[in-house]
């Protein structure tokens, strides 16, 4: 039955009721099954998960922490057999490690991680490649899949493109400036048209500690990125994360990483041509002229929206011919104008202000300091650009802007001061040419509770009290061109609801109507999402369940390993809460409608 009567809505499911509790909820008539949990083995020899005695060696053979981006590379074009690729964005010590927390005056005091814990964290970051297969309507992991792979903060990678080998990227351990170990804080991502897995390096600043040597040439560069930040203790045990010992190491992070999933021994490539910033994601589309266009968000308050256009063209008949498409191309940053037009400004050395006068001696310099280059081009400062998804079926591009409570000065594309709930911009590139340098834009949605006039939300009147959302983050366009939005940060205390996955109409009279399809347990954030090409499976990633559980009136207490606000998904006393990947299918089969 169709519970909501949204005129012309392209979504038929019965909406979930918004709320807060210990578990997840999916629309009636659908199953949401746990497929992979933090610590689940993804190789035949993986040790059983023992949360009280976790080791880096075990973690290297197990699914990592805080699953975020979810992609799928089909095997033989199947929507029932393929390689699942999943980012493991970051780790939450207080929920991972027994005994690391003390509660003092109702506040958590988290001890600094010890060497074993640091090494477990490093192994729990990165990504997983896992063969999966659907049998009798249910997904299972193929543990002996020949291409199964863990990528971690220690996996050997190659720097490619204009900044590779640059002196600013050379270190004591790597005088070539081309060989780097690991990736971390991989947030959203993408799968390329040629079937490689792209991982975006987002908040890399948190992994560096120490003080740069006095008058070091990277001081201005690092200040723009907030390096070092010292959230993680990695630098205590690994010199490369201490900028006083290895001052150039931060220049080797903040890139897009491309992984050839067909060869589990392939060396992942950091693609410097795509710029260095707090990369949120990298979703792409083959343009009508064959070049491939990637949309890239830089997730920080007042940072920018970018796109990258490959120099070469995609060859659908020869996978090998595409394997270095990301080594060369043009990076652009967006400037939005009041009249609804926009420009994409090239970040090209020697053009405009990107010259020696401003401290740029080469394209490598422009890329290493992408943000400063974009500042000089006077790009539009945005309200935290997250995932950006092109839609081949209507020629548009959807930009998630999650929030910005520090905004005091509005600009055309970010019209709300103190923007607590974020908004979504829809871009129409001129002539439906995704490589165009001009386009048009409008705001699809200002998010937040439409029943509170001061919020100024613009959901359609068909949107129910369950269907509105704030803080759009990851998003997806399904095979029928429909938009799905995952949220990050709806406060149970303030909104009476957890994060979730929302179906958003973009066409016709129903435009701006949103419905809640799935919601996460308390303390969690909604990631993924991905609908497979046959539309019969949706994968979603539940990140950090139980984190910040004190923010729900129903608990009113801190939440940590020994006393979490939920023990999702196992609900066993001897098992901590575990970030997990969920497969959603329709009961009895059929499309997600
Ligand atoms: Fe990892 Fe921008 O969220
Ligand atoms: Ca995100
Ligand atoms: Ca996406
Ligand atoms: Ca997120």
TrEMBL record:
SUPFAM superfamilies: Calcium-dependent phosphotriesterase. PROSITE patterns: TAT. InterPro entries: PhoX (IPR008557), TAT_signal (IPR006311). This is PhoX family phosphatase. It comes from Aurantimonas marianensis.
């Amino acid at each position: 039955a169709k519970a909501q009567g949204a005129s012309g809505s392209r979504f038929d499911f019965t909406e979930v009721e918004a709320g807060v509790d210990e578990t997840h909820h999916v629309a009636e008539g659908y199953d949401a099954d746990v497929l992979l949990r933090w610590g689940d083995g993804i190789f035949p020899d993986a040790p059983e998960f023992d949360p009280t005695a976790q080791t880096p060696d075990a973690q290297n053979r197990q699914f990592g922490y805080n699953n975020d981006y979810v992609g799928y590379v089909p095997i033989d074009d199947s929507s029932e057999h393929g390689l699942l690729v999943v980012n493991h964005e970051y780790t939450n010590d207080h929920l991972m490690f027994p005994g690391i927390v003390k509660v003092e005056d109702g506040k958590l005091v988290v001890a600094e991680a010890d060497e074993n814990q640091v090494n477990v964290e490093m192994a729990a970051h990165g990504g997983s490649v896992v063969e999966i297969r659907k049998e009798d309507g249910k997904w299972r992991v193929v543990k002996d899949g020949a291409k199964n792979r863990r990528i971690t903060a220690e996996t050997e990678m190659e720097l490619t493109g204009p900044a590779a080998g640059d002196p600013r990227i050379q270190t004591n351990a790597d005088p070539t400036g081309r060989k780097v170990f690991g990736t971390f804080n991989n947030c959203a991502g993408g799968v390329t048209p040629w079937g490689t897995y792209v991982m975006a390096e987002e908040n890399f600043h948190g992994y560096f500690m120490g003080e740069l040597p006095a008058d070091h040439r990277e001081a201005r560069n690092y200040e723009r990125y907030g390096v070092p930040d010292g959230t993680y203790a990695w630098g205590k045990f690994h010199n490369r994360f201490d900028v006083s010992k290895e001052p150039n190491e931060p220049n080797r992070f903040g890139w897009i990483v491309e992984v050839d999933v067909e060869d589990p021994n392939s060396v992942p490539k950091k693609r410097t041509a795509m710029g260095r910033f707090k990369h949120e994601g990298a979703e792409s589309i083959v343009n009508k002229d064959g070049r491939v266009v990637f949309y890239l968000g830089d997730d920080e308050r007042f940072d920018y929206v970018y796109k990258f256009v490959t120099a070469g063209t995609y060859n659908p008949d020869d996978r090998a011919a595409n394997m270095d498409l990301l080594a060369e191309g043009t990076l652009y940053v967006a400037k939005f104008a009041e009249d609804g037009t926009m420009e994409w400004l090239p970040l090209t050395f020697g053009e405009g202000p990107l010259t020696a006068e401003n401290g740029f001696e080469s394209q490598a310099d422009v890329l290493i300091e992408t943000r400063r280059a974009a500042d000089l081009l006077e790009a539009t400062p945005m309200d935290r650009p997250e995932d950006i998804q092109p839609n081949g079926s209507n020629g548009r591009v959807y930009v998630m802007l999650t929030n910005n409570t520090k905004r005091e000065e509005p600009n055309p594309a970010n019209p709300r001061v103190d923007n607590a709930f974020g908004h979504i911009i829809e871009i129409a590139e001129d002539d439906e040419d995704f490589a165009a340098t001009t386009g048009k834009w409008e705001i699809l949605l200002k998010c937040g509770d439409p029943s509170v006039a001061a919020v100024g939300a613009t959901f359609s009147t068909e949107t129910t009290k369950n269907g509105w959302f704030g803080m759009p983050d990851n998003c997806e366009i399904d095979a029928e061109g429909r938009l799905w939005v995952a949220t990050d940060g709806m406060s149970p205390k303030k909104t009476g609801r957890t994060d979730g996955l929302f179906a958003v109409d973009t066409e016709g009279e129903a435009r701006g109507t949103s419905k809640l399809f799935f919601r996460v347990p308390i303390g969690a954030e909604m990631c993924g999402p991905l609908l497979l090409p046959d539309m019969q499976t949706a994968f979603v990633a539940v990140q950090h369940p139980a984190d910040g559980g004190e923010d729900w009136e129903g608990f009113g207490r801190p939440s940590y390993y020994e006393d979490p606000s939920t023990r999702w998904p196992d609900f066993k006393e001897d098992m901590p809460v575990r970030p997990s990947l969920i497969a959603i299918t329709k009961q009895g089969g059929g499309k997600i409608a």
